[in-house]
Specification:
Elements lengths: L1 H8 L3 H14 L4 H38 L8 E5 L6 E5 L2
Antiparallel strand pairs: 1-2
Helix pairs in contact: 1-2, 2-3
Length: about 90
C-alpha cells in the first residue's frame, strides 16, 4: 500500500496500480484499497493511452521523414479493413 502511494506521488500510475492490485489480492475486503484500485486503474489506463498515442506520433514522424525523401507522406496512404477477412488493403492516393 505504501509503495503504491509512493509510485503515485512519483507520477507512475501503472506501477502504483500493479502494487494496489497485489494489496487487493492480499486483503480483498478493504474498502480503502478497493477505492484506490478503481482510481489508479483509470489513471493507469489514461497513462498507457497517452504513451501509445505519443509512440504512434513518433513512428508517423519517422515514416514521414523517410518518405519525404521520395516526395511522399504517410497521409498519402489509406488503409481499409476488409470486414470478411480482417486484413487491411493499403492504397496510395496522390
Amino acid at each position: 500500500m505504501r509503495r503504491s502511494v509512493a509510485y503515485e506521488k512519483q507520477d507512475k500510475p501503472v506501477e502504483a496500480y500493479e502494487d494496489i492490485k497485489k494489496a487487493d489480492e492480499l486483503a480483498p475486503n478493504t474498502a480503502r484499497i478497493k477505492a484506490r484500485c478503481v482510481k489508479l486503474s483509470v489513471a493507469a489506463q489514461e497513462r498507457q493511452e497517452k504513451m501509445k498515442n505519443e509512440m504512434l506520433g513518433k513512428l508517423k514522424d519517422l515514416g514521414n521523414t523517410i518518405l519525404g525523401n521520395f516526395g511522399m507522406s504517410l497521409n498519402n496512404f489509406k488503409a481499409q479493413k476488409d470486414p470478411n477477412t480482417g486484413s487491411y488493403n493499403i492504397s496510395y492516393q496522390s
